């Protein structure tokens, strides 16, 4: 007996986009629920989708307000936001409200599928709380606080380790500068401090800190740790 397909709620008011997503996701075995507006989306939440693809430009409910409402009803479902090119402030706001990731229109189906898989893996990781995180040559033992690249132990300062721990706990998810500052410092608002520690962390875990493979920059928004293997 085969497993039930993963249910994805697509919220977009543009019929061509919904058709593109329906065709592309269905061929990968996903079950698609479609909503052309916010009211319909809230009704379809009762069907417990495993993931939501949300366009911020909706006709009846402003996208960020709908995101807030969805998070009020379901704080765990992964949400991938679709946003117009150049809407950097809108992306940051969506991520701060609890979105897991974003894609800029126009987007490729392969990239969307990869972002969806990363968001679903992150959700499993949060619920499973695996004690050892692995991505490529990087391993982080959250219980014993041991960080390795290959067979080599990496010595981190307390703040560098805290930064890496937060990134590991949300691996695959974009974390905004604001979120990371709030997690790591009580009353610090200058993102320059964060950049310093990210640079120091990269010096210790990246083969080439100028071309990082693990701690990835989302320009103008924040950082993402490469998803676990």
From TrEMBL:
SUPFAM superfamilies: CheY-like. Residues 130-227 bind DNA. Residues 130-227 form the OmpR/PhoB-type domain. Transmembrane segments: none annotated. InterPro entries: CheY-like_superfamily (IPR011006), OmpR/PhoB-type_DNA-bd (IPR001867), Sig_transdc_resp-reg_receiver (IPR001789), WalR-like (IPR039420), WH-like_DNA-bd_sf (IPR036388). It comes from the Bacteria. Pfam families: Response_reg (PF00072), Trans_reg_C (PF00486). Keywords: DNA-binding, Phosphoprotein. One of its GO terms (molecular function) is phosphorelay response regulator activity. One of its GO terms (biological process) is regulation of DNA-templated transcription. The modification 4-aspartylphosphate is found at residue 55. GO terms for cellular component: cytosol; protein-DNA complex. Residues 7-120 form the Response regulatory domain. This is Two-component system, OmpR family, KDP operon response regulator KdpE. It comes from Bradyrhizobium erythrophlei.
